[in-house]
Automatic annotation (TrEMBL):
This is Histidine phosphatase family protein. The keyword Hydrolase applies. InterPro entries: His_Pase_superF_clade-1, His_PPase_superfam, Mito_Ser/Thr_phosphatase. It comes from the Bacteria. CDD domains: HP_PGM_like. It comes from Amycolatopsis halotolerans. Keywords: Hydrolase.
Length: 218
């Protein structure tokens, strides 16, 4: 049975003009998760990444440490939801100044976004986001050979939606799981005759002990 490893990107630049850029801490986290994947001794037949800079840079940094030269296939279906658009339409905007207050407003905005279904004002609806995230996973799982492993660099919202969907609760999954995903956390799925199943969510032993200072949620 093969496996699919989903990696959340390293810390982005919260509060900066360009949020999408990895922070210095984000690059450190990406190096450490690459070392953790190397320690596990897993060989990957396919590697995917979203097209956002924070996802691509996490992939490049981690893969260099891992020593994996499998070409990265970029796919925008692995991209995060547009948090700026959602916050603007469902929370009156959410300035990136205070992290806790921003999280409170974003949680409320995401709840309204999910509840609005296809009729909401955002450029991308919740059903559309869920559909393209699960379709990207299904495409990757279907392309893996027997016993092959896949690796994906994506974002917290995608992880919450995908994990929630596999558990049969996609909406609550997004709302409950998204907010606790850590930067460069590892989610592991099994892929085989029985389909795709969630084996573990948000693993982060590489961010504990001597690396505890690297733990971040935003």
């Amino acid at each position: 049975m093969g496996a699919i490893y989903l990696i959340r990107h390293g810390q982005a630049s919260f509060g900066a003009a360009d949020y999408d850029a990895l922070s210095p801490l984000g690059f450190e986290q990406s190096t450490v998760v690459g070392a953790e994947l190397k320690r596990r001794g897993v060989e990957f037949a396919q590697v995917r990444s979203g097209t956002l800079a924070r996802q691509r840079d996490t992939a490049a940094t981690a893969l260099k440490v891992l020593g994996c030269d499998v070409p990265v296939i970029e796919d925008e279906r692995w991209n995060e939801y547009d948090h700026v658009d959602i916050a603007a339409h469902h929370a009156g905007g959410a300035p990136q100044q205070d992290s806790r207050e921003y999280q409170r407003l974003l949680d409320a905005a995401l709840t309204a976004w999910v509840d609005s279904g296809d009729t909401g004002p955002c450029a991308e609806s919740w059903p559309a986001f869920l559909g393209r995230s699960t379709a990207a996973l299904a495409e990757l799982a279907g392309s893996l050979g027997k016993g092959e492993n896949g690796l994906v660099f994506t974002s917290g919202g995608v992880l919450g939606a995908v994990a929630g969907s596999l558990l049969g609760t996609p909406g609550p999954g997004l709302l409950k799981l998204n907010r606790v995903t850590v930067n460069t956390g590892i989610t592991k799925l099994t892929s085989g005759r029985g389909g795709v199943n969630l084996l573990s969510f948000n693993e982060h032993p590489h961010l504990e002990g001597e690396n505890a200072r690297l733990l971040s949620y935003r």
